[in-house]
Amino acid sequence: AIHPKRPMTSKRIFVTGASGCIGHYLVEALIQETNYELFLLVRDPGKLKIDCNVRPGITVLQGNMQEIEQFSDLLKTIDCAILTATSWGGPQEVFDINVVKTIRLLNLLDPDVCQQVFYFSTASILDRNNQPLKEAGEIGTDYVRSKYVCYRQLSKLAIAPNVVTLYPTLLLGGDAQKPWSHISSGITKEAKWLNLLRFFSIDATFHYIHAKDVAQVVCYLIEHPEQVDDSQQVVLGNPPVSANQAIEEACAYLHKRIYFRIPLTQRLLDFIFNLLRIKIEAWDRFAMRYRHFVHQNPVTPSTYGLPTYCASFADVLKLSGVPPKRRRR
């Protein structure tokens, strides 16, 4: 709920990518839980499905990262910037938006005025020790490589001491009023594969996090900057879950029995792909061999004593729109 008795503050927050999946949850939380002055950058205001007239101090800016210079004067007055905007398009656009224009925006901020920057990267560029994963920079997709390159440039900027880099793991989110994340949009469609997957044992591990939990973490860190450690890096994700555990929880949720499990080895995968003549890109092949995409000290709202919205794999299915099946009598 909105806190009407909370006094207005002078903090000015600039948000890019406000109409995206994370952006929607962030803006909603900032509107409802703070009285900060918000400046929301969106390419198409019609895609922002949030009532921005619910309280004063909210300005929607129509524009995009390609034209970030037109907001130069405003950016010099910003106290906190939250950079969620990203591109998954062609190679030229991806690197222009995710690297060139992102660095340009960071350089337009005044380090003496802007005390906090939350820059969204991706956990795909980190290894199991939260260090840069060299394969991400060498054979990653255009998106992954662009995030790797941008990460490498951040430390050279004047604003660098004020930048907190956020690394979301597998991102969930979306509903009738918010765009679905890539993962959540595919879960409903691919749930049918559980009928086959339940009979395989898969040696893999991963983290996941819901965009609503991401928003809660960011709002908390805005209020409590001292909670960020010296690395200025925050991996956003629930505790790691194994692929086998995820399959078991999904089967329990859908009341499907597991009678036996065959180890899905790399050799078996290679045989299946060769048999079906499926071409595997270098990054996907690396991911299949790397298998355990886990990181040190992942963060959720519960890390800070707050309730976590999506804390179990059953929550993942429910919040992604997969209806539970009734147990057969």
Structure description:
- The chain is α/β, with parallel strands linked by helices and 329 residues long.
- It is built from twelve helices and 13 strands.
- The protein has helices at residues 21-33, 72-75, 91-108, 134-139, 142-154, 182-190, 194-197, 211-223, 243-254, 266-276, 282-290, 313-319; strands spanning 12-16, 37-42, 58-62, 80-83, 116-120, 163-168, 170-172, 200-201, 205-206, 208-210, 233-236, 241-242, 262-263.
- Strands 3-2-1-4-5-6-11 form a seven-stranded parallel β-sheet, with helices on one face.
- Helix 1 links the parallel strand 1 and strand 2.
- It is globular and about 60 Å long.
What are the defining features of this structure?
alpha/beta; 13 strands; disordered N terminus; single chain; 329 residues
Secondary structure layout plus pairing:
Elements: E1 12-16, H1 21-33, E2 37-42, E3 58-62, H2 72-75, E4 80-83, H3 91-108, E5 116-120, H4 134-139, H5 142-154, E6 163-168, E7 170-172, H6 182-190, H7 194-197, E8 200-201, E9 205-206, E10 208-210, H8 211-223, E11 233-236, E12 241-242, H9 243-254, E13 262-263, H10 266-276, H11 282-290, H12 313-319
Parallel strand pairs: 1-2, 1-4, 2-3, 4-5, 5-6, 6-11, 7-10, 8-13
Antiparallel strand pairs: 9-12
Helix pairs in contact: 1-8, 3-5
